[in-house]
Amino acid sequence: PTQDELKRLAAHRAVELVEPCMTLGLGTGSTAAHALDRLGDLLRAGALPGVSGVPTSLKTEAHAARVGIPLLPLDAASIALSIDGADEVDPDLNLVKGRGGSLLREKMVEGAGARFAVIVDESKLVPRLGCTGAVPVEVVPFGAPHTLGLIRGLFHGLPGFHARLRTTTVPEGEQGSEQQPFVTDNGNYIVEMFFDGGIRGDLRDISDRLLRITGVVEHGMFLGMATVAIVAKKDGTVAVME
Ligand code: DER
């Protein structure tokens, strides 16, 4: 099966956890998109009456509306289950999320819910976080280069560490294109941290130090938040990690 078929497999298995009248946390990304499509199909077939969802991004809000999932604001919801993808899953079910830029609303919604099912294909499983790419940190735009400097200071001297402000390419008419800071749904910027070979050290200590930096809003390490991981293996079987 293709990677997308595996993502769909994991997503559909997670949707089996949904019961009528549940309020859900609706994730962001290509794997979560399969869960939204599946939920839409079931809702339209009358299979899940009373289900509604809290979206974790403007993109998911639009997708959920398009497939007919009733939406609720976070403050009006008691979320029974969130379903979302991840960029990395370590053996303790710690996650890297947010390479799609939605980490803040994801962490707020998934932190508010009773259960959180992560849906991934096998390629997301890592021995330690930071192995396959950036660990994102959402920072306020004011003084972002200064905040980047403070984040770099946390890891000063750590071999193989580097960090940068995430940029996006903006077409500039006939002059070609230019790089501008990536802006999140919340109007913030993203610092991307890179750790060669992954993060070696106490993840909670690193989390605490990051969150104490004035100007840092939140980071993409979701520690101890997932209650189950649904993993579609390359051979098409699905493993459930609790
Ligand atoms: O940005 C996010 O947190 C997404 O959930 C991401 O981590 C997973 O995206 P994917 O399902 O497209 O790989």
TrEMBL record:
<dbReference type="InterPro" id="IPR050262">
    <property type="entry name" value="Ribose-5P_isomerase"/>
</dbReference>
<dbReference type="Pfam" id="PF06026">
    <property type="entry name" value="Rib_5-P_isom_A"/>
</dbReference>
<dbReference type="InterPro" id="IPR004788">
    <property type="entry name" value="Ribose5P_isomerase_type_A"/>
</dbReference>
<dbReference type="InterPro" id="IPR020672">
    <property type="entry name" value="Ribose5P_isomerase_typA_subgr"/>
</dbReference>
<dbReference type="GO" id="GO:0009052">
    <property type="term" value="P:pentose-phosphate shunt, non-oxidative branch"/>
</dbReference>
<dbReference type="InterPro" id="IPR037171">
    <property type="entry name" value="NagB/RpiA_transferase-like"/>
</dbReference>
<comment type="similarity">
    <text>Belongs to the ribose 5-phosphate isomerase family.</text>
</comment>
<protein>
    <recommendedName>
        <fullName>ribose-5-phosphate isomerase</fullName>
        <ecNumber>5.3.1.6</ecNumber>
    </recommendedName>
</protein>
<comment type="pathway">
    <text>Carbohydrate degradation; pentose phosphate pathway; D-ribose 5-phosphate from D-ribulose 5-phosphate (non-oxidative stage): step 1/1.</text>
</comment>
<dbReference type="GO" id="GO:0004751">
    <property type="term" value="F:ribose-5-phosphate isomerase activity"/>
</dbReference>
<keyword id="KW-0413">Isomerase</keyword>
